[in-house]
Design goal:
heterodimer, A: Rossmann fold, B: Beta-Lactamase, 2 domains, five-stranded antiparallel beta sheet, elongated, binds guanosine-5'-diphosphate, binds magnesium ion
């Protein structure tokens, strides 16, 4: 069976843990727990008859007290960068942060995700993504589950290419 | 005039006496002042007194403060008995178990050392045989229960944490996830606590010990239960190095591509079955 490592990154509180929980356990949890700044989940997906193990590293955002080792990102086969549509400070430096990420992992698929779509109306959401200097791959809500499955499915497909 | 001369003399005499007295006094004050202000001088004089006080307090502590403390603790426990029991029970259990294991481990290490020193390998085996023949069944069983057992072996790619191969007696946990978490813990420990190139070598986890051997591209983690002696660890080292030399390194020469998990796992089984029998 093929296994791939996917890292989820983004500022504290944008909904990384919640997105994974939606995808892996199909439920939404308000709880947040971190000790060493990372948690690893696994989900096996089937893409056109090919089984793929996704090992998803949920890396805590930088405003937590724990210092996050850079090496958590190393060897990732794909990355999902999450920001919070309702808090501009979580996407203000998105270009710089993505460039820093690319220094650690190059030539892997990276998806940019605007989460907490449920907190905005459609007009606001499209205004935000139009204002960003890069393409947003998915708009999601970890709360309603909206677009969560398609996000990971598309990552899985990109991993198998 | 004569009279006044005498008077002058007299005053001088009297004053002189007073001056001397004052000077003496000043000197004395100076000494006291120094004693008080210079710590090194003050300390030897006060230390014995303080010491006495400390000893007194130590002796009298239970008497002086004991009742108040006891009463307060008693109240707290009374008010939350269930919580206390709930909180203490597992900890005590684990502590006791861990303590006993640790003690036996130390003992077995001491015995190892003694044996190493006193016997050659052949003699050692004979000695053990003789001993075991005369040993009580209960003791044998106890020893059997505490034998080191390799529960799991993971070969994991450095940093990415991807599992390259594994051996497992019991498959109870998700090995991919354990490999990932172990790698994360390793990275975390390295970045948080270590100096220079030092690496995490063992992790104690409840009654398990995780022994980690690092190589440039991967590391091997061995999860062991029971009592682990120095001799066991030496043997483990040998087996791991042998495995790396014969199986992993030779393969990397042949093919530069990705590691293939199944290939290593199969070989791991053959290797660690040997260790399973090691006693
Ligand atoms: N309304 C809403 N709240 C969300 C959503 N995703 C996460 N949250 C909440 O945002 C907070 C932070 O989420 P969490 O997953 O812990 O963020 P992380 O730090 O990125 O892992 C929690 O209180 C979540 O309940 C979402 O899509 N919509
Ligand atoms: Mg989180």
């Amino acid at each position: 069976m093929i296994s791939k490592k996917v890292v989820l990154i983004g500022k504290y509180g944008v909904g990384k843990t919640s997105l994974i929980q939606q995808f892996v356990h199909q439920r939404f949890s308000e709880k947040y727990l971190t000790t060493i700044g990372v948690k690893i989940d696994k989900k096996t997906v089937n893409i056109n008859g090919t089984e793929l193990n996704m090992l998803i590293w949920d890396i805590a955002g930088e405003s937590t007290n724990t210092k996050i080792p850079k090496s958590y990102h190393l060897g990732a086969h794909g990355a999902i960068y999450v920001f919070d549509l309702s808090r501009p400070f979580t996407y203000e430096n998105i270009v710089t942060e993505l460039n820093n990420l690319k220094k650690l992992i190059s030539n892997v698929p990276i998806q940019v995700v605007g989460n907490k779509l449920d907190l905005l109306d459609e007009k606001n959401a499209s205004q935000i993504i139009n204002s960003l200097p890069l393409e947003v791959s998915f708009l999601t809500s970890a709360k309603t589950g909206n677009n969560v499955e398609p996000l990971f499915q598309s990552m899985a497909k990109a991993l198998l290419k | 005039m004569r009279e006044s001369d005498t008077f002058k003399k007299l005053t001088r005499l009297i004053l002189e006496e007073e001056r001397q007295a004052r000077e003496q006094l000043e000197n004395r004050v100076e000494v006291i002042d120094q004693n008080l202000n210079e710590r090194e001088k003050l300390e030897p004089r006060i230390a014995p007194i303080l010491n006495d006080q400390v000893i007194f307090l130590q002796k009298k502590f239970p008497e002086l403060f004991g009742p108040a403390i006891t009463a307060s603790i008693k109240n707290q426990i009374k008010d939350s008995k269930d919580e206390v029991v709930e909180a203490l029970y597992p900890i005590m259990g684990k502590m006791i178990k861990k303590y006993i294991l640790k003690e036996i481990e130390l003992l077995s290490e001491r015995i190892d050392k003694k044996i190493d020193a006193a016997f050659s390998l052949d003699n050692w085996i004979m000695f053990l045989k003789a001993k075991f023949l005369g040993i009580k069944q209960g003791d044998m069983m106890l020893k059997g229960a505490m034998d080191p057992v390799i529960q799991e072996v993971f070969i994991v790619e450095q940093f990415s944490g991807m599992l390259i191969g594994s051996y497992s007696r019991i498959t109870s946990v998700d090995q991919d996830m354990v490999a990932g978490m172990l790698t994360a813990i390793k990275s975390f420990a390295k970045e948080t606590f270590s100096v220079g190139d030092q690496e995490l070598e063992t992790i104690e986890y409840e009654n398990y010990k995780i022994v980690i051997k690092n190589f440039p591209k991967f590391y091997i983690a061995v999860i062991i239960s029971g009592i682990i002696s120095k001799a066991f660890l030496d043997k483990l080292d040998d087996i791991i190095l042998d495995f790396v030399n014969k199986i992993i390194n030779q393969r990397s020469e042949k093919a530069d591509g990705d590691f293939i998990e199944e290939e290593f796992s199969e070989n791991l089984n053959n290797y660690f079955i040997k260790l399973k029998k090691y006693d």
